[in-house]
Write a structure and sequence with these properties.
63% helix; 47 helices; 984 residues; single chain; two-stranded antiparallel sheet; elongated; mainly alpha; Serine Threonine Protein Phosphatase 5, Tetratricopeptide repeat
Length: 984
């Protein structure tokens, strides 16, 4: 619960206004007071990054709960502060996000609409269902747990400053549900950046799967207190508080039998009072039996204390855990409202239950709750759990809350209703990002067991519950479901095979994934299912590093694209594959772009190809975006890739999916020449990939583009270190195609290291491999140009022939950036006027492309070549333009080189800034003026009688150079705004 900015005091039951009296806890109390004082003082002084963590640990009954009650009291007394409290429960450990709900619901549920939008941002549909603020969205089948973490991080980062200073207190951390604990562990690190004090208490009884999180929390703590037993003097003081006449020998025996444990000491003293035992030495022998009864607190103990009626209510309360509603507990144990009220009165008088301000009941101490729960006879406990599930559902509760009770019932009766509930509960758990809880529900459903006709389907659902978190378990269960008799329905069988192939492919075995789809398609009747399998087989084959018959597969795709019904949903996936083949073959950018555009619907991804649509998964839209990127339509590619990031965030897919989206956006930014932004996206992706393991295709893709980016920025050593860290070297990934080509990237890295002979060998093999596949794209793998550079020292004639062939192939493709880059590399194996002519041609082509870094590189190279032939005055303008563009790109190494060339030529390495509009060439200015009048590209093309593609290329250069979108063009050009009616 939360005490928000009200200065209220949280007290233990039956204590004075300052809280319960404590013994031998002065050091711990000073620690709490110091931590709260520091938080409030530094926040008042304007501090925001002041988060600290305070830990209390020790054996059961040692006083941890009392210390946290004191922390709540001290923090709650501070004006303006906010205190959030939650408690773990061994009986509720299987209810996902239970502790986070208890912790955050009071404060987040009280936000008004405007503040809610600010605090949640775009994360509401992800976070709100997990913490109980909303029902799971029907649009999201499953959420990656990392997505929940990311969303919670955002929410708490927005919330903390609004409710600061914020004190977050969690008792019994060892009994916190896994979903809440994993986030608390990560938040313990992030809290350093927020005005937050964390106060946690725990026993050293963490389950094995929770140990890593426990260690992370312990390592983060600024203050750690291991509570110890009380000494005899303190125990005597506790006894004398209750019995002023108690003699010293009696007090000493109380200490001996309780070992100085505060909870046991207080419980024993209470037993002495209830037994009317005189506190004198003669009665000391009876203390051991009383202590054993009080400590054990078994069924007989509680039955004697409470009676038959009251104990049943207490049992029902123990089943409910930390948040007990009187009417729900009454329904579970079958008591009327009057009987329940009397039971509560007795339990409060006996110091078993206490009431909270919101009207809910709570056990006075967690050990009492555990004791009462354990006193329930096993058969009775099982029946009451089943009743609890029914009552919670009937009271309007969700299956998420009821499912933990269903898990405690005995399987083996084949109850179809039970199986249906468990399957629905599993679906809800997946929808809030709790696959572990979903698996528990489905495993329990399998043990029921389901009807024989449903078993394969339940097993399939169990496999899907692990899809985002445990690929190995997913694969094993999918294989079992596929092989089971009676088996899956035909449609679900196809779905299971496709899911299995997806898991196999994402693990790196693309050949195995393709074979699975091929084998299943051979036994599947004609129809949509068989077609999906066929397309998946073609996709996974195309994405393999090596392919036996690349041209043959491409021809099959071409025929399929021609034969498929153009109005069917099946048309778009085939068109994507056809566009990819045309792009990689490098036959002509116009045809490749036409095929790519035909896969869109009104310029957008069709529903079947959306990033989170499980019909085709994310590979096909990714290939479509790469088709645009490889053909210099980078704005369209970036639009697709940014929608991937957004779609994955909305769906809560924050693992490999979002890492892959960061790779795509990083690559597009690299191609645009926005190098710092590319590096930022790639580092985010690598952080995700590092969490997932090593040698995955995702890691290789990210590492390859990161190496390219670092080389472009002039950080050659860091690029090499990245290659070493991620083992980015031959034999590369065994089966997966790395984008862009991994071996070409490695060859470029070797050239940067001065190892030209090794680079030549590597790049020559690339050429042989890609020749066999019929792939000649100079964007995917510009191996030939770099091979020419690597050969120049040992065989200049061969280097020149290779460079000329690279230029010819690039011209065949028609991609401006590919032509410009090939020309620039060809100039490196030429000298004098020939090199100048090649570089002038390269600058012209790259000026028409969106590839800013390559354009800057060509400008600087041209300036250097002009200096070498004695044309320094001409070189000046090119070097200045290259310098400015390199600075704009973040190409630090290229910028330094341009300055050095200017200085060597006797020119000033800097000059007054040129207005951005003056960097446009005449052709670009012409297009820019028309675009500033809000004319669309098609109208501009008609007016200037130019191909639409040329207009778009010039517009891309305009936007890049002016640093503005269409709306800001008029202002950037210094033109007056058009009258509303000027453009129809």
């Amino acid at each position: 619960m939360a005490e928000e900015q009200n200065g209220s005091q949280v007290q233990a039951a039956d204590t004075g206004p300052a809280g319960p009296r404590l013994w031998e806890r002065d050091h711990e109390m000073r620690s709490i007071e110091h931590a709260v004082d520091k938080l409030c003082r530094e926040y008042a002084a304007g501090g925001l990054k002041i988060g600290e963590l305070l830990l209390f640990s020790g054996m059961p009954g040692i006083g941890k709960t009392t210390m946290l009650e004191q922390a709540r009291r001290i923090a709650g007394a501070r004006e303006g502060s906010t205190t959030l409290f939650a408690r773990g429960s061994e009986r509720e450990r299987k209810e996902p996000f239970r502790v986070l709900r208890q912790l955050l619901m009071p404060v987040l549920g009280g936000l008004d609409e405007a503040e809610r939008k600010e605090v949640f941002g775009s994360w509401y549909n992800i976070v709100a269902p997990a913490i109980g603020l909303a029902s799971p969205s029907g649009e999201i089948e499953r959420i990656d747990p990392q997505g929940i973490h990311d969303g919670l991080d955002f929410v708490i980062t927005q919330l903390a400053p609004r409710r600061a200073p914020l004190v977050v207190i969690v008792d019994d951390l060892h009994a916190v549900d896994q979903e809440s604990l994993s986030w608390l562990a990560s938040f313990a690190v992030r809290a350093r950046e927020l005005p937050v004090l964390l106060v946690f208490a725990f026993r050293h009884e963490f389950e094995e799967e929770a140990l890593p999180f426990a260690r992370q929390i312990k390592d983060r703590a600024a203050y750690k207190h291991e509570l110890v037993q009380l000494n005899p003097v303190s125990v005597a003081a506790i006894v004398h508080d209750e019995f002023a006449e108690a003699d010293d020998a009696f007090c000493r025996q109380v200490w001996a039998v309780t070992a100085g444990t505060p909870f046991d000491t207080v419980a024993l003293v209470r037993e002495v009072r209830e037994q009317n035992l005189e506190p004198i030495e003669e009665n000391s022998p009876r203390l051991r039996d009383l202590a054993a009864a009080a400590r054990g607190q078994g069924r007989d103990y509680w039955l004697e204390k409470l009676g038959v009626t009251v104990i049943r209510f207490a049992w029902a309360a123990a089943l409910l855990g930390t948040e007990i509603k009187e009417e729900v507990a009454a329904a579970i144990c079958g008591q009327t409202a009057t009987q329940a009220a009397e039971s509560v009165r007795v339990l409060r008088r006996m110091r078993v239950l206490t009431s909270q301000p919101d009207g809910r009941l709570e056990f006075v101490h967690p050990l009492i709750a555990t004791s009462i729960y354990q006193s329930i006879p096993p058969s009775t406990r099982t029946g009451m759990h089943g009743q609890a599930a029914t009552v919670i559902e009937n009271a309007g509760g969700s299956l998420l809350a009821a499912s933990r009770h269903l898990l405690e019932t005995h399987p083996g009766e084949g109850d179809d209703a039970m199986v249906r509930k468990l399957r629905r509960a599993a679906a809800e758990n997946l929808a809030i990002g709790a696959p572990g809880a979903a698996r528990r529900c489905l495993e329990r459903a399998m043990n029921e067991p389901p009807d024989v006709d449903d078993q394969a389907e339940v097993l399939y659902e169990l496999a899907c519950a692990s899809l985002l978190t445990d690929p190995e378990a997913t694969a094993n269960q999918l294989r079992r479901a596929i092989d089971m008799e009676p088996g899956l329905s035909p449609d679900l069988r196809v779905e299971a095979v496709l899911r299995l192939s997806e898991v196999v492919a994402h693990s790196g075995d693309l050949g195995g994934a393709a074979a699975l789809c091929q084998d299943e398609s051979d036994h599947t009747p004609e129809g949509p299912g068989r077609f999906r399998l066929l397309v998946a087989q073609l996709l996974y084959t195309a994405l393999q590093r090596d392919e036996e018959d690349g041209p043959g597969r491409a021809e099959r795709v071409r025929r399929l694209a021609a034969e498929v019904d153009p109005d069917s949903e099946a048309a778009q996936p085939v068109r994507v594959l056809h566009a990819w083949d045309l792009t990689l073959q490098g036959g002509g950018t116009t045809e490749a772009l036409r095929a790519a555009e035909s896969a869109l619907v009104e310029g957008r991804l069709p529903d079947s190809l959306r990033w989170t649509n499980t019909t085709w998964n994310f590979e096909l839209p990714a290939l479509l975006g790469l088709c645009f990127a490889y053909n210099d339509e980078l704005a369209r590619a970036e639009k697709l890739f940014s929608s991937a990031i957004l779609d994955f965030e909305i769906a809560g897919w924050s693992g490999a999916h979002r890492g892959f989206a960061y790779f795509l956006m990083g690559y597009a930014r690299l191609r645009r020449g926005f190098l710092p932004e590319a590096e930022d996206f790639l580092r985010r992706g690598l952080r995700i990939a590092d969490r997932m393991g090593t040698d995955l295709p995702l890691t290789w893709n990210l590492a390859g583009v990161m190496i390219e980016t670092l080389l472009a920025r002039g950080r050659d050593q860091e690029a090499w270190d990245t290659a070493v860290k991620y083992r980015f070297q031959p034999p590369y990934h065994e089966t997966a195609l790395v984008l862009p080509d991994a071996a070409t990237t490695y060859g470029k890295l070797l050239i940067a290291r001065g190892r030209h002979q090794e680079a030549a060998a590597v790049l020559a093999k690339v050429g042989e491999r890609l020749e066999r596949r019929g792939w000649h794209s100079g964007v995917h793998a510009p191996w030939a140009g770099h091979l020419a550079v690597a050969l120049a020292e040992q065989d200049l004639p061969a280097a020149r022939r290779t460079a000329e062939e690279a230029v010819e192939r690039a011209r065949t493709s028609g991609v401006p950036s590919a032509i410009g880059t090939a020309l620039r590399l060809a100039a490196q194996v030429r000298q004098g006027a020939h090199a100048v002519r090649l570089l002038q041609d390269a600058v012209g082509w790259l000026g028409r492309s969106p590839a800013s870094y390559e354009h800057a590189h060509a400008l600087v190279d041209l300036g250097a070549a002009l200096v070498q032939v004695g044309r320094s005055l001409e070189a000046e303008e090119h070097l200045y333009q290259g310098l400015e563009l390199a600075k704009h790109c973040g190409a630090d190494g290229l910028e330094v080189r341009a300055r050095e060339l200017l200085a060597t030529a006797g020119l000033q390495p800097s000059r007054s800034a040129v207005p951005a509009k003056d960097t446009l060439n005449p052709a670009e200015q012409e297009v820019a003026r028309l675009a500033a009048r809000s004319l669309p590209p098609q109208r501009i093309a008609e007016e200037l009688r130019l191909p639409l593609g040329i207009v778009k290329q010039r517009l891309a250069a305009v936007h890049r150079k002016l640093g503005t979108g269409p709306d800001g063009l008029a202002d950037a050009l210094g033109l007056p705004a058009d009258d509303p009616g000027q453009v129809d």
